[in-house]
Every structure is written in structure tokens, then in C-alpha cells.
């Protein structure tokens, strides 16, 4: 096969690959675009238009006014923010310390500890939620945010991410600091933690997405409406309403996504960097 034929085959394969990726992107993006346009459609406040339309028949921001009037959006979002920040602090602290210990301390049984931690990822949450619910009920921690914070200490995927990332960092940094008299905790805080910013950003995004969008565990753990997270609040509003108010729900859902999008845009650079350095893809 001559060079011209090879170039032609490469161009065709690039076009096919680009077309497949474009179609896949549209499949993922179209529902989001439809949700945003419907949220501005006052004519869709009582019934979802079918077939779906991608431009509001009656453009209005009254759907957003109704969302903020009928749903305590700000309270729900603050509750979600408290839960998210707490879970991120607990889970990242646990993951980074355990990842550093397994990667650099080389203690006996480190690989077994990592294997046991990873094995917990094979058990779906639906199998453990009832025992977890009964345990927190026994400890009188239901309807408190501790029911979110304490399970976050077992962040096995974060431990794996941190361990893989810290493996790429030179061990000579630790050895030099130890020779100079630094304690192990000082080595971790002052030397390795600043170098872990990219993987920290990745774990923050992953945890924030998981916690912010979670519905099942908040539905089980929280009873007081004033403590509802944003997803639980929207679900209960939609469930208790006699009228569906689809465009109002779309408006509230669109607002609930703003913190996620802002955080992703802010940390996007670090996420790409961490994936490039650790070679981990999720």
C-alpha cells in the first residue's frame, strides 16, 4: 500500500471516529439542552410538550420565580453544600493519609490493606444501606449530617487514586526530609500534600458530584424537611404536588446544577493534569 493510500485511510478513519464522538456527545448533551430550554417555557408549566421542542413557545423567567417561591432552594442548596464539604473533608483526609502510608511507608501487609479496601468497592451500596441504616439508627445519628460524614471515611477509590498518584512522586524527597529530622506527618503535610493538588482536585469533583446528586441515602437518613439536600427537596416537591409543573421543576433542576458546573470549570485544569500524571481513567 503506497503512502497516498495510507493517508487516505487515515483521513477516513479520523472522519469516522470524529462522527462517532460527535453523535455520542449530542446524545449526552441534548437532554441537558432540552431541560434548559423547557425551564424557560411558560407554556410548558402544566404539561411536558411532546414531541419535545428545543425553543420555548412562550419565553419567560416566571418559571424560575415560581421555583424560588414554592421551593426553599437556597436552604436546600446550603444543606447540600454543608453535606458535600463535610464528606469531602472526611473522605479526602482518609484517602490521602492511607494512600501516602501504603505508597511510601512500605509497611508489612500494605498490599493486603489496599486489596481489602478495594474489595469493598465490589459490594453495591444497595446491599449495605439497610445494615448501615440500622447501625446509624442504633447510634441515634439518623437525621443528622454525621450519617453522611462517617461513611465517607471509607473512600476506597480515593485511597487507590492517592496511592497511584503518590507512587509517581520520588521517595527521595521523604528520605531527605527524614534525615533532616522531619516527622512523618511533617513530610506528608509540607512536601507531599502540595504536590497532590491535581489528584485532590479530581477527588473533590468526583465526591462533590456523588454527594450533590445523591438521592437514595438522604431519602433514608433525613426526616426533617429543614435538613433536606437539594435533590431530596426537589424530589419531595415533585412527589407532593398535585400538579406536575414540569417547567418549574426543570428551572429548579437547572439552578441546582450551577454549583457543579462552576466547580468543574474551576478545577478542570487540575483534573486533566492528574489523569495525565497518574495514567488513571475513570
TrEMBL record:
Transmembrane segments annotated in the record for this chain: 12-37, 76-97, 109-125, 145-166, 187-212, 245-267
GO cellular component, one term: plasma membrane
Predominant cellular place of this UniProt entry's protein: membrane
Bilayer topology: Multi-pass membrane protein
Top-rank taxon, per record: Bacteria
Keyword Membrane: yes
Keywords: Cell membrane, Membrane, Transmembrane, Transmembrane helix, Transport
ABC transmembrane type-1 domain location: 77-267
Pfam family of the protein (one): BPD_transp_1
Entry annotated with the keyword GTP-binding: no
BP GO annotations: transmembrane transport
Subcellular location: Cell membrane
Entry's family note: Belongs to the binding-protein-dependent transport system permease family.
Protein known as: ABC transporter permease
Lineage, uppermost ranks: Bacteria, Bacillati, Bacillota, Bacilli, Bacillales
Amino acid at each position: 500500500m503506497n503512502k497516498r493510500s495510507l493517508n487516505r485511510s487515515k483521513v477516513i478513519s479520523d472522519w469516522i471516529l470524529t462522527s462517532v464522538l460527535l453523535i455520542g456527545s449530542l446524545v449526552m448533551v441534548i437532554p441537558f439542552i432540552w431541560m434548559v430550554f423547557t425551564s424557560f417555557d411558560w407554556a410548558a408549566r402544566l404539561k411536558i410538550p411532546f414531541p419535545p421542542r428545543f425553543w420555548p413557545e412562550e419565553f419567560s423567567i416566571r418559571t424560575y420565580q415560581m421555583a424560588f417561591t414554592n421551593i426553599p432552594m437556597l436552604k436546600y442548596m446550603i444543606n447540600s453544600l454543608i453535606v458535600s464539604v463535610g464528606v469531602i473533608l472526611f473522605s479526602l483526609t482518609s484517602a490521602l493519609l492511607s494512600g501516602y502510608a501504603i505508597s511510601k511507608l512500605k509497611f508489612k501487609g500494605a498490599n493486603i490493606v489496599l486489596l481489602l479496601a478495594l474489595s469493598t468497592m465490589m459490594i453495591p451500596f444497595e446491599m449495605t444501606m439497610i445494615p448501615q441504616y440500622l447501625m446509624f439508627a442504633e447510634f441515634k445519628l439518623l437525621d443528622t449530617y454525621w450519617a453522611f460524614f462517617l461513611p465517607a471515611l471509607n473512600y476506597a477509590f480515593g485511597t487507590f487514586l492517592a496511592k497511584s498518584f503518590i507512587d509517581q512522586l520520588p521517595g527521595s524527597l521523604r528520605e531527605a526530609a527524614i534525615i533532616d529530622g522531619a516527622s512523618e506527618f511533617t513530610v506528608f503535610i509540607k512536601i507531599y500534600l502540595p504536590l497532590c493538588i491535581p489528584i485532590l482536585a479530581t477527588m473533590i469533583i468526583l465526591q462533590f458530584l456523588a454527594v450533590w446528586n445523591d438521592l437514595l441515602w438522604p431519602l433514608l437518613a433525613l426526616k426533617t424537611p429543614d435538613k433536606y439536600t437539594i435533590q431530596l427537596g426537589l424530589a419531595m416537591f415533585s412527589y407532593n404536588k398535585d400538579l406536575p409543573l414540569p417547567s418549574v421543576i426543570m428551572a429548579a433542576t437547572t439552578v441546582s446544577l450551577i454549583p457543579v458546573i462552576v466547580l468543574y470549570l474551576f478545577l478542570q485544569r487540575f483534573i486533566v493534569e492528574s489523569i495525565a500524571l497518574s495514567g488513571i481513567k475513570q
